[in-house]
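re: that chain from earlier
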Amino acid sequence: MSVRKTIREINGIRDQLSKKNAEYFDEVIVHVRSSRVTEESGEDWLLARGRELLAAQQKGGTAAKLFGQDPVAFADGALAGLPQRRAENRSRLWLLAPWAALSWTFLLLGLTALFAPETENVNIGLLLIVVVGALVLVEVLMRLVRRDPGEGVPAPPKFNARNVGTMLAVLVAVGIAGLLLIRIMPVVTIPYWLSLALAAAGFVGQFALLRRR
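^ sequence. v structure.
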């Protein structure tokens, strides 16, 4: 069965579930589809669990009794045993994000130094903050992105207390680390022409990276 047909069958099962069971199953679907398991194995697993839940519901059972009170914990328990997608795309994104951030940073530094030569003095800590900040932003966005339960496609981020708390903690940690880095890291002089050259090289490199398959 194709993935599309599997998703349609899952949708048909969801339509037959009670409100509470459907809400529980939606949480499981979102968690599985936003994980790194291969799409086919993830959808097949969801279909099997949907059939189990529908059969249990017809006998008066509930999702919480069948799978446990926490849908995320239930999904996590199964994810480890499912085939995982290759990390190539994720690794490329982790490389591209700080690369792009540094390219724009050098461009801004170079342009600013044309009119304010004193800005050629750059704290190494600032560059490290740019790199770490870009990586953190990518990770946060990837964790927030989910898939729509009905279509199996990316949907707007789902915000909840756990997500908001995690983001705030990460931002505070990055901010504190950034202040410490700026205070202890040395200052180097980067001429405007070098900043512009690094920015140009960075943009060319990004273009080449994006063209690779």
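Residues 88-115 form the longest helix (28 residues).
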